[in-house]
Amino acid sequence: MSAPLDSRDMTASLLQSMDVRSLFTDTGLGLDSFDFSTLMDAAPASDALTTGQEAHAASHESSFGLDPAHAPSVGELLHVSDASVGSGSGAHDPTAHVGAHADAMPIQTVHPASHLSVTDAPTEHSPSAVATPAATATNATETTTPFATLASLDTAPVMASVPAALAGPAALVQEAAAPASPTAEYIPTAVTAPDAPIGIDFSPTDSGDGSLGVLIDGDGDIVSALSNSTSSSTAGSGGSAGTASSAATAATASPFVINVSYDASVGSAPAGFKAGVAAAVQYFQSQFTDHVTININVGYGEVGGYTLGAGALGESLTYLNSYSYAQVKAALTADAKTADDATAVASLPIASPVSGTFWESRAEAKATGLLGASTSVDGYVGFAAGNWFDYDNSNGVTAGQYDFFGVVAHEISEVMGRSLLVGGTIGGIANGYYPLDLFHYAASGVRDFAGTTPGYFSINAGATNLDSFNTNGNGDYGDWASSAGNDAFNAFSASGVVDTVSSSDLRELDVLGWDRGSTGSTTPVPPPAPAKADLVVSGLSFSGTHFSYHVGDTGAGVATASTTGIYVASTASGAGTLIGTIAAGALSAGGSDTEAGTLNFATNSAPATYYFSVTADSKNVVAESNEANNSSGAIALVVGNSGNNVLTGTTGNDVLFGLGGNDTLTGGAGADQFVFNTALNKTTNVSTIVDFSHAEGDHIALDHTIFSTLTPVALGAALTANNFYASGNGTAHLATDHILYNSATGALSYDADGTGAAAAVQFAVLTHHPTLVASDFMLV
């Protein structure tokens, strides 16, 4: 089966007219701060077309164009190119946004029957929206200080406001195309857990130039415009860095760096996705030696905040600058370092062979010296979500799938400037050309400035055909025709084949300004089979109602974003019931993340023992070297109610919650925790601790909101020594004596003001009257 790698193109015959709308520019905000779908909705779709403006035939696409009365000043433009699977033209739908403008994937929360609920604890990585389907659960904020508890949770999506008045012109193009093979769209959705005897809700806690221009596609169609805006942005599910930025340089001595930032959508990408991107990045870095850094944002199922076109394998969006022919020629001449460069520059005439404006991608302008260093995004690339790709082509490409390495190389090279414009209009500026147009020939000595007429790439004034360009309007004109074979730069690809980067591909990039560092083999070493992650949970512990644990990647590969499941079971060996989830961020090999939450108990349920555990990657989205070690051990939670209960722990490390009443508490063997977190009453709420053992590591946990005059310490830390006093009569001798122990009777009391007027209130009695010290108590 043959399918186009690039499907959106502007043919000369379609460059006739344009439906125009002036939208916005000079916002001072980053591109990703805007919901382009609202702009689309505001613009009419069927006004009369006027001659001399850029447009496509109505049967091919509907367009919102640029008002010719507001032509942009010479600056930067961003173009889009795409790759699609299947026949027909691909569709690029800017209105189809993925998810809300939020900094992270939503935290999945469930609130079943409410015996036990969990209060959200936030992540340091980013704020997240929390769904609360049941009224019984709350997104509580722990604000008490200086206790080292949990920070507040931002439950609202991060949204950017668009100024009411926006100076300058811009335009937005929506392209429509014939349906192709469907591409799965990544939309984060809340997952409903099964009903459970415990309700839970929580979130994780974790320990140059600045101008962006018009966003256009590979054919010159405008997507949006931003003039002289900063490169900052509010990340959504698409656009700028929703996840941490990383330079995917791998092992290379080249000064050329492709700095990759992954969109939040990549959190749902399969294993092998990032390794495949890194392999293509490493390959380009190994082939070129320019002392520049280019910045590319990568999306999964989207590109720059836009859903990929139907059937698209990949798409790119590229920022452009406009230059005169003299500037482009001088830059290519000054940058010439190889024999091919010298030959190509010698073929350039003194004066421009064509009337119009030349454009270079920001990345290419850096390579040719026309643009200085900048941390702004130079382009976006996005790849289809779903089972389209073989991520490891070392043993060939699976039948029915496509070579991911080839598609990534294809899209990145377009950001590097590998495109033809063939006289197209950009932002109302007619007769536009890229440097590659200067090496597009119809015959020896005859340049070709049309996309639909046969032409080829030549560096010696057309004497030698290095590869023929595509003339099919369903593919980009800057791509190769099928005569190039199974090539990563082809306009069309078959499934089940390896698409290599050929000698002609590298020579093409070389004469466009990229400095070849090697003239050896051009076939990239196939990317190795992706190293796999191995997620494990460690350190699960409780401090009263607060729990925490670590998710660590002990494998050799990167663990993509995943979901940690919280489970309870009625028996130690029984299957756990999912009561909620926490979104876990991506982890590098050897990395770890600390997550936490708070349990809230009802006081009217029957006493019971729950076995609490945590499982990393509960939705099984991370490919791991060992799938059998994702779960923590279980901790027994022995939970009472407001009545007089007899509660007995297990032989392990248990947490006992009396929850009011005159309870009898027996921890059993192991390091047990006896939690006191209900209002004190010396008559109706005094618990008997039968078997407290300092030697076994038992602790008495005191809720700081109940025992409020105790000296604040970190969550789970020991009581300060001057707050505890043991004596034969159980009375205070200093104002700081708040926890009083009668060593003769075993009575344990709380005195809010020590030697002050307030009376002590007994809350427990310890059978056998063991010796106690301050470190036997912990604040929670």
Please provide a written account of the structure.
- The chain is mostly beta strands.
- Among the domains are: 2-99 and 217-511, no CATH class; 640-780, no CATH class.
- It is 9% helix and 25% strand.
- The strands form nine sheets. Strands 4, 6, 7, 8, 9, 10, 13, 14, 15, 18 and 19 form an eleven-stranded mixed β-sheet that branches. An eight-stranded mixed β-sheet has the order 28-27-30-31-33-35-37-42, with no helix packed on it.
- Helix 2 (273-287) packs across helix 6 (404-415).
- The longest helix has 15 residues, at 273-287.
- Residues 1-216 and 218-252 have low confidence and may be disordered.
Mean pLDDT equals 71
- The share of residues in extended strands comes to 15-25%
Distance between the termini: 64 Å
Structural class, please? mainly beta
Which of globular, elongated, flat, extended, rod-shaped describes the shape? elongated
**Number of helical stretches of at least 4 residues:** 7
Biggest sheet statistics:
11 strands, mixed
Low-pLDDT regions: 1-216, 218-252
Helix content: under 10%
- Specify Rg, calculated over alpha carbons: 32 Å
How many extended strands?
Answer: 42
